[in-house]
Amino acid sequence: MMRLRSVIRFRLAALSLFPIFLLPALLAGCAELPTVKEVRPGTPLEKAPVLDAAKARDAINAYRETKGLKPLAVNAQLNQAAQIQAEDLAKRDLLDHDGSDGSTPSDRVKRTGYVAGLTGENIAAGQKTWEEVLQGWKDSPPHNRNLLLPDATEMGIAVAFDRETHFRSFWALVLAAPLTAENKSNWE
Question: Where is each SCP domain found (predicted)?
């Protein structure tokens, strides 16, 4: 019986020290953890994702409706601003709201001739489908806020694809409202 107690005490003591011996090995592994940019789930995207702006609008509007918000209309100038941003992201293979020329989302919208009283932008990269993009934006608080901008009335959406980049697909959504006497005071 005495021998059994000694063995149990030794095993318990050894178990209590286990995390201490394991810690250096675990910490050494942390140095090799991949960064977000190095991780791409599933198989690589081999062809350009299909994007139907009307279906995207309908999905966003259905979501906005559940929150009691008015629907958005697709605007050609905002589509152009979104396309410019998506292509710029693909060219640089990164996500950034500032364009390679230093432009902001508002600058890009203005360049299309759209006179905005409100501008918002969501971007994403690496997703294979519009549905994946939308779900990611819903799950991200800052992107979700843009989807639910109460004063937005119009939108533009685009995707760019480049097989030679890490992310391959680059998505841009521009939400806006034209400048009116009502929202002009927000800019003065």
Answer: 58-169
